[in-house]
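Structure tokens please, single chain.
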Amino acid sequence: MPFVIIILSLALLILLISRFKVNAFLSFLIVSILAGIALGIPLDKLPTSVNKGIGSIMGDLTLIIVLGAMLGKLVAESGAAKKIADVMVNAFGTKHIQWGLMITGFIVGIPLFYGIGFVLLVPLIFSIVYQYKLPAVYIGLPMLAALSVTHGFLPPHPSPVALVSMFDANMGMTLIYGLAVAVPAIILAGPLFSKTLKNIKSGPVTLFEQKETSSDYKTPGKFNSFATATLPVFLLIIVTVIPYCAPDLGDKASSLVSFIGAPAIVMLLAVIIATYSLGIMQERKIQSIMDIYGDAVKDIAMILLIIAGAGIFKQIMEDSGVSQQLADLLKRLPVHPLILGWLIAAIIRGCVGSATVAALTAAGVILPLVVATGVNPNLMVLSLGAGSLMFSHVNDAGFWMFKEYFNLTMKDTLRSWSVMEAIVSIAGLIGVLLLSLIV
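Here you go.
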């Protein structure tokens, strides 16, 4: 009976979000409370479970996501993202322009949330299309594939950060494994796949215009733009690798590395440095920079609430005891846990459209199996991230952004965008499974 309740709860969650368009956080909250009642949690204990669920997940990642949003917003507003794009396009030239745009999407996608990166970079794609008379989808898809992969696979993006917290994974190792999985996936779904799309015709950008950097401020230089945008990645990798390269560090040095290596501290250092390098150095006043940071927090408020809602659902499953029962059941299935996690995330993604909701909901279901089987939690984060990018179609906001920006028919959008997302997802799973043979 508990499994029937969980299945019905997931079905109700999907129905509320996709059919009735109820806010994802409210849907999680309503479904979690109903599931708690149905699973026999005493009514006077339910509020405790709700509060505990929010606290257990948000305590680890609120700072990381908020600071990451601040960094990304400043990278965009300062003109650093555009500077990176211009440098990459000039470096690769017309012949290899796809590769330049793909790398640009990857670098810019690390600090920027997907929607911001999309809006920021699409005008660049069309400026190249008009200048060199090249097919827009053929040119643009590699960049958007890179943006999508960073969104689904790599910290400090909200979904991977939340999954790292839920599975008690290591942020640095997840990032290193994620980079190893991401690069082949982007190449397959970007430059290679887009070669089959040269005949797709698109219209001009009609919906949005790129926000120009104010002339009152200087634009950061090339090195400054690249270094500041990628600083969190390099810091996380460095502090993760140091203990392996220098195992005999003294207590004080080890404590210092552990402190600096904490993801929240890494992001704080990155924001402090960016405040100076992309803000004060470019003659921005502190108040102007703080306004950018304030807007960034507003942009991610709903993302934080959705993650909190997923934490509530996970806690209800734990407090009711159904998590352990589910783990015992899933262990008996003749399917590798990493494949099972990917499959659950992919199915939910196809139903609700949101990659974040898909990954976090699947995490609540698969978490007890991870604990019971001892599967590598870093790889499970990536498996769910890959699954959450599968089946992008008409219920996904990204699908419609791509369709309308590029002025495509429904058929061409499915043929290009949806297939690209499927390639990224499947390639990601294959990469994770290959890594599982090594680590």
